[in-house]
């Protein structure tokens, strides 16, 4: 209950969290079913919370990967992907501006900035758009 009071967990995360505390007589699935039935455990809420927290700092690929790690179903993930992709360019721009502020001056710096945005989960298409926008803003 303490864990659920702090943040939303997916069913798979809660299952993994409870396993170390289980004895042979305990039925983890029954406990999880009860938590879901009472409305205390929800994959949908875990998905919403993760997306709302991560969308301003990370790209679609990274968020989708994190959701898969949390045990969220692919169907649920695919339902939020269009919304994530819609704001991805602006998020990438904000992240890039916070970190670098100036367009790359040489190929080495450009590669560094691209790797940074890739590590944040942004697609190459979005990264090149950000780089192109930064070049045009500086008149390069």
Note down, in words, how this protein is organized.
The protein has 140 residues and is mostly helical. It has two domains: 2-86, no CATH class; 88-138. The chain has nine helices and no strands. It has helices at 2-6, 11-18, 28-38, 43-54, 60-69, 74-86, 88-99, 107-119, 124-138. The longest helix is centred in the last third of the chain and has 15 residues, at 124-138. It is elongated and about 65 Å long. It starts with a helix and ends with a helix.
Q: Which class do the helix and strand fractions yield?
A: mainly alpha
Question: Which percent bin holds the helix content?
Answer: over 70%
- The pLDDT mean sits at 87
Distance between the termini: 56 Å
Strand content: under 5%
Largest sheet: none
Along the chain, the helix and strand elements come as HHHHHHHHH
Number of helices: 9
How many β strands by DSSP? 0
The overall number of domains is 2
Shape: elongated
Q: Which ranges are low-confidence, i.e. pLDDT below 50, for 5 or more consecutive residues?
A: none
**Gyration radius, in Å:** 20 Å
């Amino acid at each position: 209950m303490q864990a659920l009071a702090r943040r939303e967990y997916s069913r798979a995360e809660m299952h993994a969290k409870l396993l170390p505390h289980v004895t042979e007589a305990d039925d983890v699935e029954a406990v999880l079913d009860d938590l879901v039935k009472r409305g205390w455990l929800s994959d949908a809420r875990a998905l919403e919370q993760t997306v709302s927290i991560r969308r301003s700092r990370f790209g679609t690929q990274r968020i989708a990967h994190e959701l898969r790690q949390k045990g969220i179903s692919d169907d649920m993930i695919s339902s939020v992907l269009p919304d994530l992709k819609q704001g991805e360019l602006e998020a990438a721009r904000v992240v890039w501006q916070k970190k670098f502020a100036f367009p790359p001056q040489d190929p080495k710096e450009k590669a560094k900035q691209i790797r940074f945005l890739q590590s944040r989960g942004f697609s190459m298409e979005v990264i090149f758009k950000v780089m192109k926008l930064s070049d045009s803003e500086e008149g390069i």
